[in-house]
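User: two proteins, same treatment. go.

Assistant:
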Amino acid sequence: MSGGESIIEGVIAAPGQRLDKALADATELSRERVKALLADGQIALDGQVISQPSLKPAQGARFRISVPKPAPAEAEPQDIPLSITHEDEHLLVVDKPAGLVVHPAAGNRDGTLVNALLHHCRGQLSGIGGVARPGIVHRIDKDTSGLLVVAKSDAAHEGLARQFAAHSIERAYLALVAGLPVPPSGTVTGAIARSNSNRKKMAIVEDGRGKHAVTHYRTLERFDHAALVECRLETGRTHQVRVHMSSIGNPLLGDPSYGRTPKSLKPVLAQENFSRQALHAARLGFIHPVTGDALQFSSELPGDMQALIGRLKY
């Protein structure tokens, strides 16, 4: 051992399985992590270093895995306040404020949710993909507020990613939209891809070119020239609610990219100094990827959207 790694030892319990699956089942490592460790020569079976993930070991074979200490994440930990709705050893649910970018990228190298999580979870993150970092399995836009779940362990990351891929995660957003949707409830279906005219925007495109996307909406409250709408996502595509609601003639209030604010509503937004899309991730439900418990979380509308509703009522 070169120092700093941890050792996992055990016995293959069932015959006939691929080695990568058998080891993932016997440990808290994901299959992708097991494959990477096999390729790096970190796994031995009955005393011999093995590299083939498809090998089918005999029942009772002894394995030994050397897991190197996770490499430091490129992003730096930063002491940024977080609103934590739930946390355990495998995952946490964050209630993100509007204005906070989720992941470092060009133009936002620090001051992000990931920077905050690296500070909050220091010493508690496993090596997701070999790097000490939180597992971001989904994102919400910088100027959208509300709930998102973050993995702290390989097992949680893989299990959550599987649920997102299967579209089995419950996600409900609250949005303030221009106009009154007709009909007041319904389903918007339309594949989404990058816009040909503006690569920073998304657009509804022909099936086959974009990703299938479905949004179920219902009107919760009506105002003059505006409405509070609940949007439940059957899929989770970039800017999905914003694109789909705009496509039926009801763009989100304050949205700078997808639809203009009607003249009758501009004074209302100006009075509240409201300059973001009026969108909040209000409910989140999933099966805990490790314990199997059904979890559901909710978040109240943030103050700026509540104030805007108050202004729309009078």
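Protein 2:
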Amino acid sequence: MTVRVLKPGMLSSFQDEGRVGHQPLGVSVVGAMDQRAHRLANTLVGNTEDVASLEITLTGPTLQFTQACCIALCGADLSPRLNGKPIAMNRPLVLRAQDELHFGARQHGTRAYLAVHGGFDLPGVLGSQSTYLRSRFGGWHGRALKRDDEIRLRRPLKEVGQDGGTLETLAKALWGISLYLPSIIADSTRARIRLIQSQQWEEFTPASREALLNASFRISPDSERMGYRLQGPDILMTQPRQMISEATTFGTIQVPAGGQPIVLMADRQTTGGYPKIAYVATVDLPLLAQMGPGDKVQFELLTLEAAQTLDTARTRAFIDLAQTLHPVRTLLLNH
């Protein structure tokens, strides 16, 4: 009843929605970089979004499943294969005992998310199963996967279900369910990442504000889950000043004295004292999370009201999708 790690991949760690509510204690939120893909993968296998998925970065692991289960893969296309054969993404799939899942060449994106029906058997730390790599807690022993790790599944599938159906019957039934993903939660691309002005927007020079919206920035090699450093035109304040540290959020764009912006990501620190020129709109954070070092990024402004409308629409779309996929959950719970 385990998942055995034959090869760990570049960086594979368990993540959920994050460790919310503990920033006043100095505990970072962390969680999935691409919350859209994480939530979609869980929805497809009948889980709620607070169940941890396996976040797979660039080079995927090789995993052996010792018992049947139902999985879904979403996010980056890293050429997933089951027993050497390509498999579909964004669908619930039945795996049999001793099946091996591995990954090949990167087609697009940076991070894939593997969810399994019932979830992985991981302890909770401060209300979350997310791995905080820097502090070494949460997830699987507070670290990325290593060769020969064995992680138990909470709800593997039986060979014969309560209704007498076999795994083959279940697999055919799941494949026969039509899936329609609204554009707001499907894999998508945009030419520009949308931003919301910060309270300090006017304190930056007009030339800097224009550069942020019209120039192209490159994500620095010195970027990771804590933050993306952007290489491009210097973003400068009209008068440099020191600030009292404030709480940070996913998508905050801080500007150190050197003028090169940093977009704070999932593993951000709890507070920061650098000036903030803008915030990445929540609806576009998944697009940014699927970029990596060397990728170019451009920005455009979005009003707070428009950003809230888009966020509400995405939440509504996920609720509707979960209701549409109720037959999937029923089939899996009966097996």
